[in-house]
Amino acid sequence: DTAVSQTPKYLVTQMGNDKSIKCEQNLGHDTMYWYKQDSKKFLKIMFSYNNKELIINETVPNRFSPKSPDKAHLNLHINSLELGDSAVYFCASSQAVRGGAQHFGDGTRLSIL
Amino acid sequence: GQQLNQSPQSMFIQEGEDVSMNCTSSSIFNTWLWYKQEPGEGPVLLIALYKAGELTSNGRLTAQFGITRKDSFLNISASIPSDVGIYFCAGQLKKTSYDKVIFGPGTSLSVIP
Fold it and tell me: Residues 31 to 50 of B: which have CB under 8 A from any A CB?
């Protein structure tokens, strides 16, 4: 059983389109995250939700909107995609008490044409 | 803001050699974490350290939480080809309502059979 699963694994789309990435965790964790990994492999936190409430919102364009329907799901919607949005997006989850031990999904590779 | 430095940036070693890498910061962290990322996958937690001076092993891997709480190191003994990947350190800070985790830029390890 996959602990943190993201869909789709690959996403190729044109500039200006709107797309969504879904994430689900079956670990019973309270906190979920979205990270962006650029071409130099640097991992940057974008958002974090704890029990469906937004707790971290780093400097991210407002074209990115996370949505957490329940604590097991955290989806990411991106409007008006730009070339600079090309990256690998990782979802992760952790227990609130030991928040540092995050479990990551396998990533969604987003390519903007 | 808080920032982590990892050295070396990349390593090429012969199979069987021992590996040592470290992570430093000008900030104090409550927790240090070491992750490994293989191509096409998300980071996987290797070792978590929760107390200054703590030394923890996981098979051939050993990591230590620096006494000053501003650094950590990871050693891999008798490297094998499957050790190839990017090793990330991450420091965790306790904020009032959440735990902030900051990732280092990674050390890329290549093992020559």
Answer: 31, 33, 35, 37, 40-45, 48
